[in-house]
Amino acid sequence: MNFFPVGQTHFLATSAFLFTLGVLTVVVRRNLIVILMGVELMLNAGNLAIVAFSRFSGHPAGHVYVLLIMTVAAAEVAVGLGILIALFRTRKTINADEATYLRW
Known about the structure:
- By secondary structure, this protein is mostly helical.
- The chain has one domain: Helix Hairpins, CATH 1.10.287.3510.
- The radius of gyration is 18 Å and the shape is elongated.
- The chain has helices spanning about 10-30, 30-55, 60-90.
């Protein structure tokens, strides 16, 4: 018994909510780790939208694209955390305002 069918609109509304939450996190916060988490949240919201379109259109290519995007996102996180560790070792802070200076 399916009393409340979940349609494409529900997936896209959830995706839009998660993307908005990620944008607000990037705009409001100053901590670079939290900013990276917001960027990842936006990327996963886009992935959710791609999977929703793929599921309801019947083409499995969207699922393959999402797997590739997740692989690139994992590499991006590794590089981003490496940069943050280097920044913390030199500046002793991970504040976004401190990271804007070009001179180390």
